[in-house]
Design goal:
single chain; mainly alpha; elongated
């Protein structure tokens, strides 16, 4: 778990997450069993199942999209030809590379 405030707060983090989840689960169970003015318990249960199915479908759809994307990229890259071999650097190219490296590694020049 990520600790954004303070160090060594694992026990407190677990306690707070546990309390939050307990309230959410108790609220869900209560509204699944008790009719209220706004919604019946049966309708609430149906809505919870439908919301869960939506979340499940979203997660599965996202994972399938990522998997298919990876498969397509893999298949495309397998069909690419081998890269051509390059010729060795000429003397002027080597000198130019040496100049560039000296400028980069040498830092600012003192004048």
């Amino acid at each position: 778990m990520a600790h954004t405030i303070g160090n060594m707060r694992t026990k407190e983090t677990i306690l707070m997450v546990g309390i939050c989840l307990s309230f959410v689960l108790l609220g869900l169970i209560y509204f699944m069993l008790v009719d209220t003015n706004a919604i019946s318990a049966e309708q609430f249960r149906t809505d919870i199942w439908l919301a869960g199915a939506d979340l499940f479908g979203t997660v599965i759809g996202g994972l399938l999209a990522i998997a298919i994307f990876a498969i397509v990229i893999t298949m495309y890259e397998r069909n690419l030809p081998e890269p051509a071999k390059t010729n060795p650097l000429s003397i002027t190219e080597k000198e130019r590379v040496t100049e560039i490296l000296k400028d980069i590694v040498g830092g600012e020049k003192d004048e």
